[in-house]
Amino acid sequence: MALAANILRFISILVLVALWVYTGVRFPSLPQEIPVHFDFHGNPDNYGSRNMIWIEPVVATLLFLLLQYVSKNVQSPLLNIPQSLRENKWLAEVFVMGMSVVVSVLFLVIGYGSIQVSSGQSATLSYLPLILVGLMFVYMLVFFAVASRLKKKENS
């Protein structure tokens, strides 16, 4: 399972690199004022300096680093998972690394969409971020169910 966690870690890194590169390549062509917040329907509802576009890769990277830490320290109070999942270190690490992939992809999609709206190539942010958040909850429920089943098997 260390291999699975490492593959997921590598995917997260690739997604983060893509976010940084895309933001860096597109930054010079952005207008001075860009949308920095979107409503539920993807319409921009707040604007700020184009330098604000760097918040997405910075926050995504900080979250990645935090998730790396808790994946290696599953007893950390920063990791809020069921005890049955916490007791299975390799499964907990795979769970956290999977969440890292989803979070990284979520930031990439939001960053891409923000730049598309900023540059006039799209009027709204797509619904994909909302779908990814929903998938993140499904992912958590599936992992918690698997951890619960494994715990029941161990107790049998």
Quick overview:
The protein has 156 residues and is mainly alpha-helical. Helix content is 67%, strand content 8%. A hairpin with a 5-residue loop joins strand 1 and strand 2.
Give a structural overview.
The chain is mainly alpha-helical. It has 5 helices and 2 strands. It has helices spanning about 1-25, 55-70, 85, 90-120, 130-155, and strands at about 35-40, 45-50. Strands 1-2 form a two-stranded antiparallel sheet. A hairpin with a 5-residue loop joins β1 and β2. α1 packs antiparallel against α2 (about 55-70), α1 (about 1-25) packs parallel to α4 (about 90-120) and α4 (about 90-120) packs antiparallel against α5 (about 130-155). The mean pLDDT is about 90.
- Low-confidence blocks of residues: none
Mean pLDDT: 92
Element-level helix/strand string:
HEEHHHH
Strand order of the largest sheet: 1-2
Q: Class by helix and strand content?
A: mainly alpha
Please tally the β strands and state the result.
Answer: 2
Q: How many H/I helices?
A: 5
> How much β-strand is present in the residues?
5-15%
Gap between N and C termini: 23 Å
Q: What overall geometry do the principal axes of the alpha carbons give?
A: elongated
Fraction of residues in helices?
55-70%
The major pleated sheet works out as: 2 strands, antiparallel
Radius of gyration: 18 Å
What are the key terms here?
156 residues, mainly alpha, 5 helices
Write the layout of secondary structure elements.
Elements: H1 2-26, E1 33-38, E2 44-49, H2 55-72, H3 83-86, H4 89-118, H5 128-155
Antiparallel strand pairs: 1-2
